[in-house]
Design a protein that fits this description.
By secondary structure, the chain is mostly beta strands. The protein is built from no helices and 28 strands. 0% of the residues lie in helices and 51% in strands.
């Protein structure tokens, strides 16, 4: 492994040359027994990638959304909580190691690794820099992608959780003190502060607004980033975690009651609430008129069509025994 910020030519411990035909399958070709507790998703233009938060060195999963073909590659770190794809490389957090890794998706090589703050939890990027929120030390770490080095650590408040880059600003949501801060990436200074409910919740941008899931308040906040204020708060299900949108509709995963709330982004009105098809839905993405979501409780990745009452496919990510 390389030292923080340095390039590594060493591949991960396991060989990426996997014989995928030997991965155990059930009679349903859309169900593969290969992992546990998926927590985050990302799409690179061709594949959906999935990371796992429980197993140390857990494989990173790759799914072709068209064919539903499934592959895995060796992972890295301990307790992966976030996944981000920037310029064709994978960035993942390793919360128990206090590290962020950059990984080549084709070879599984660790391209660079960085010792950041305590318990890195979420990632954001503008293409030139990576930021991670460090949940247990109140900071955001800024990484220069090209230079492969940490350039600053910014104190933001108590227990920063959700993180988002939007329109030239980095937004960090502090779960402990009920603030949402906007950071100018040129100066690393806080330039806006918005009062939001305390507690966990990730951020999502749709249209002109930032949406914040309020995990402990069973609601979704709509934030005007220009005015720097909350302009609406809307009830959703129990323990909302993450949101995604197609521009007109916003879907929110409710991890406490195993549902997805669909909201009209213009009015904030609830259109409907549907089953997540499994326990503890967490990450969700919208892709090609389908919703893809991971349920951490049953270790499954689901694909739902635009009318999410119909389940088109399920890929089971339960661990190999």
């Amino acid at each position: 492994m390389s030292s923080p910020g340095q390039h590594s030519t060493q591949a991960l411990t396991n060989s990426p040359d996997i014989d995928y035909s030997k991965i155990p399958r059930t009679s349903d070709e859309n169900i593969l027994k290969v992992g546990s507790c998926p927590v985050d998703l990302a799409f690179d233009g061709q594949y959906i990638w999935v990371v796992n938060k429980i197993q140390s060195g857990s494989p990173i999963r790759r799914v072709d959304p068209d064919t539903k073909e499934y592959q895995e590659m060796p992972g890295s770190g301990k307790f992966n909580t976030a996944l981000l794809i920037v310029d064709g490389t994978l960035w993942i957090t390793s919360a128990l190691e206090n590290k962020v890794y950059q990984i080549d998706p084709n070879t599984a090589d660790v391209l660079s690794e960085y010792r950041v703050g305590t318990f890195p939890y979420q990632l954001a990027s503008d293409g030139a820099y990576i930021w991670d929120s460090n949940l247990l030390d109140g900071s955001v770490t800024k990484i220069d992608i090209k230079a492969r080095q940490i350039v600053s650590s910014i104190h933001v408040g108590t227990a920063p959780h959700g993180l988002l880059f939007d329109q030239g600003l980095v937004w960090a949501r502090n779960t402990g003190d009920g603030t949402l801060l906007a950071i100018d990436p040129l100066t690393d200074k806080v330039v806006k502060e918005v009062s939001v409910p305390t507690g966990s919740g990730l951020l999502y941008k749709s249209g002109d607004y930032i949406w914040a899931a309020n995990y402990h308040h069973n609601s979704l906040a709509k934030i005007d980033p220009v005015k720097g204020e909350v302009v609406g708060t809307y009830p959703v299900g129990d323990k909302p975690w993450r949101a995604v949108s197609d521009g007109q509709h916003l879907w929110v995963t409710n991890s406490g009651d195993n549902t997805i709330t669909e909201i009209d982004t213009g009015t904030g009105a609830t259109i409907r609430t549907i089953s997540s098809k499994g326990p503890e839905p967490l990450a969700i993405i919208y892709l090609r008129e389908h919703l893809w979501l991971v349920n951490s409780g049953d270790s499954a990745l689901y694909s739902l069509d635009y009318d999410p009452h119909s389940s088109l496919a399920m890929i089971d990510l339960q661990g190999l025994q």
